[in-house]
Each structure stands twice: as structure tokens, then as C-alpha cells.
Design goal:
By secondary structure, the protein is α/β, with parallel strands linked by helices. It has helices at about 5-10, 20-25, 50-70, 90-100, 115-130, 145-150, 160-170, 210-220, 230-245, 270-290, 310-315, 320-335, 355-370, and strands at about 5, 35-40, 70-75, 105, 110, 135-140, 180, 185-190, 205, 225, 255-260, 265, 305, 315-320, 340-345. The strands form 4 sheets. Strands 2-3-4-6-9-10-11-15 form an 8-stranded parallel beta barrel, surrounded by 6 helices. Strands 1-13 form a two-stranded antiparallel ribbon. It starts with a strand and ends with a helix.
């Protein structure tokens, strides 16, 4: 397996504000909104697990998370992978919507260039209706050549497709007829129905790591979604988001932040030993994909071996008080100043349900209160 310095180290290592949600009373004015995810539906070859089992257990973990007080649940997508990485994230969120009543449902992220924007607008609107306005739509630009080739989409046009998708979604969600002419898409007098449950549609969070992608989130997004890293690295990225928002005539404090964070909790024995194999699969898969991504957005890649230090630095693992202590700096740095979602992954590829559910239970009962009170 290969891990990429830009992906795991260059992005800095570990130790949104959404007015519509707040106005609707769906997000409480607390320091941090703690989510669970990303759920990716991966079944490593040879694990003995089935996709039906993985999906059923994912739904049960989401039900547990809601009962324990988590604020959101998040999924991600990729295509054509050997482990079946979840390819259809909005259908999965529709299942989450049917299984829950309160928690927000997020995508981290939809690969926007691979989706027709009108169809994406329709699918997102249906999930928003099913969930009574609980959807948060995270979008990314994508980078894996294999995925673009699979769908016959030119990689070089992905930026235009993503930027135009944001505008098309917002216009489509008004429920009114509209026309659009851009570099990638052109429509005449189209209308998307039904509209989302939330007026104006779900908040759109934009992901990215290079400077222009970070600034794009500040200019166009309702929020910025990013993998975790050290606090200072995230502060620098957030400063770019805020600067871009100001230049676009927006209130910088209105742009939310969602941070995706690995972690694992156990009440006895070696927590890291229980999580290591799944974490290595997760990070090794991303690293291998990135190694083959020869694109302008990833022009500083340098392969690394999947060393233990790198894996552990990205996944705080231990007893509840140890994990709370490791995550607290993120809450202290970003909580209470804007809409801030800390999305914690506790389930890893190939992990059995008993191990994963105990981690979710411990985190909900002991770590969650510590973070909320930080």
C-alpha cells in the first residue's frame, strides 16, 4: 500500500456556520456539532463480509448514534474500487433519513463532475424531503482518472462542472423554471420538482486542499469541508476561506466548517490494535489512488510507506478520556465562533459490528459530553 505525503502529512497532522439550519432550530447554538462518519461501505476482499451486512450494520450504527446524541451522520462516494467503496451516497442517506428523526445527514463528498446537476438537484431534494430538511450537501471536484474515464467525463473540465453545478443546484431548488448557459452545461426552461423541504435547498459545503480550492469554498460555499489536521494548519485554511468570502462581499462568519476526523475508542485492551487493520486499509486505499492521480490539483505528491507513526498520528485511539483529550484542541480552536461540525469516524473497513458498535457507544456516552462541554 502507498500513502501520500501531500494527503496525510502535507495537509498537517492532528495532535460550519449555516444560518438556515440555525434559524430552523435544527442546529443548537453549542460549541461543536459532533457527527459520525464517514460511512463508506467498504468491504475488503477476503474479509468474509457481504455488502448487505455492511449496509444493514451501518444503518444500525446510525440509529445508535442518534440515540446517543450525535448531531449528524455522513457518507462519501467513490467508484470502481476493489472493496466496493460506496458508489451511491444519496440512496444511502435516504435510508438514513427513514431510520432517524433528528440528526443531520451529510455528504463528504459528492463528486460533483460525475453527476448531472439536474439529476443531483432532484435526488438531493428527495432526500431533503424524506428527512424533513436535514440534508447537508458536500461537494468535491474529484481527481481519480479511473472514475472520470468510467463515466466518460473529461477530467480537464471538472472545475467548470463543479462551479456550474453549485449555481445550477441553487437555481433548481427554487422550484421555478430557469435557463442556464455555461461552459459545461446548457439548459432551456427547465424546472426541478419537488423542491427541497428547506427553502432555498440544503447548505452546500465545498471540499478541497490546494489554495484555490479552499478559496473557492469561501467564495461560493455555505461551508468548507476538509480532512482533519493540526490546528494551525486548519487555521491557515480557514483564513483563506474567510478572505475569499470577504472579497466576494460575504460575511466570513457565515461560512461553516466541517472537519473529518479519524478516531477509535475502547474501554479495555489495546484500542489501536482493534482499529489498525481497518485504518491501514482506509488510508492505504486513498494513498494508492492519489499515487495515480497525475493532475494539476495534486502536483506535489510524494509516496510514503504506510508507516505506523503516520497511521497513528491520524487516528487518535485509546480510552475515552484519551480520545477526548486528543480531539479537544479542535473544539477549542473552532467551536462557538461559526457553525462547526466535527465528524468522527469510528468504523473502519472490515471491522466487525460488535467492535464498531462498542466504539460508538463509548464515544457517545463518554467522549461526546466531554467535547460538548469543552
Amino acid at each position: 500500500m502507498i500513502i501520500i505525503r501531500d494527503f496525510f502529512q502535507g495537509r498537517s497532522r492532528p495532535p460550519w456556520r449555516c444560518p438556515d439550519l440555525a434559524a430552523a432550530g435544527r442546529v443548537r447554538p453549542v460549541a461543536v456539532h459532533v457527527g459520525i462518519g464517514l460511512f463508506t461501505g467498504q468491504v475488503p476482499p477476503g474479509s468474509g463480509r457481504t455488502f448487505a451486512q455492511e449496509y444493514r450494520e451501518t444503518l444500525e450504527l446510525v440509529r445508535m448514534a442518534e440515540a446517543l446524541g450525535f448531531d449528524s451522520a455522513w457518507v462519501s462516494e467513490h467508484h470502481g474500487t476493489s472493496d466496493g467503496y460506496l458508489p451511491s451516497l444519496l440512496p444511502m442517506l435516504a435510508a438514513f433519513a427513514a431510520a432517524t428523526e433528528r440528526i443531520l445527514l451529510g455528504t463528504g463528498v459528492v463528486l460533483a463532475p460525475l453527476h448531472h446537476p439536474l439529476r443531483l438537484a432532484e435526488d438531493a431534494a428527495v432526500v431533503d424531503q424524506l428527512s424533513d430538511g436535514r440534508l447537508i450537501l458536500g461537494l468535491g471536484i474529484g481527481w481519480r482518472e479511473e472514475e472520470f474515464r468510467m463515466f466518460g467525463v473529461p477530467l480537464e473540465g471538472r472545475l467548470a462542472r463543479t462551479v456550474e453545478t453549485v449555481e445550477i443546484l441553487r437555481r433548481a431548488w427554487t422550484g421555478r423554471r430557469f435557463s442556464f448557459t455555461g461552459r459545461a452545461y446548457r439548459f432551456e426552461e427547465v424546472r426541478v420538482t419537488p423542491p427541497p423541504a428547506r427553502p432555498g435547498g440544503p447548505p452546500i459545503y465545498l471540499g478541497g486542499y490546494v489554495e484555490r480550492a479552499v478559496r473557492r469554498a469561501g467564495r461560493l460555499g455555505d461551508g468548507y469541508i476538509v480532512d482533519s489536521g493540526d490546528v494551525e494548519g486548519l487555521r491557515r485554511s480557514l483564513a483563506l476561506v474567510e478572505e475569499a468570502a470577504r472579497r466576494a462581499g460575504r460575511d466570513p462568519g457565515s461560512v461553516g466548517l466541517a472537519v473529518l476526523q479519524n478516531a477509535f475508542v475502547a474501554d479495555a485492551g489495546d484500542a489501536w490494535a482493534a482499529a489498525r487493520e481497518g485504518v491501514a486499509h482506509q488510508m492505504g486505499a486513498y494513498g494508492a489512488w492519489e499515487a495515480g492521480a497525475d493532475t494539476p490539483e495534486h502536483d506535489s505528491l510524494e509516496p510514503l510507506p504506510p508507516d505506523e507513526e503516520t497511521l497513528r498520528a491520524w487516528t487518535p485511539a485509546g480510552r475515552p478520556e484519551e480520545v477526548a483529550r486528543a480531539l479537544r484542541p479542535l473544539v477549542e480552536a473552532f467551536g462557538g465562533r461559526r457553525e462547526f461540525h466535527l465528524v468522527v469516524r469510528l468504523h473502519y473497513p472490515g471491522m466487525d459490528f460488535e467492535t464498531a458498535s462498542r466504539a460508538v457507544e463509548l464515544f457517545g456516552e463518554e467522549v461526546l459530553p466531554a467535547l460538548k462541554g469543552a
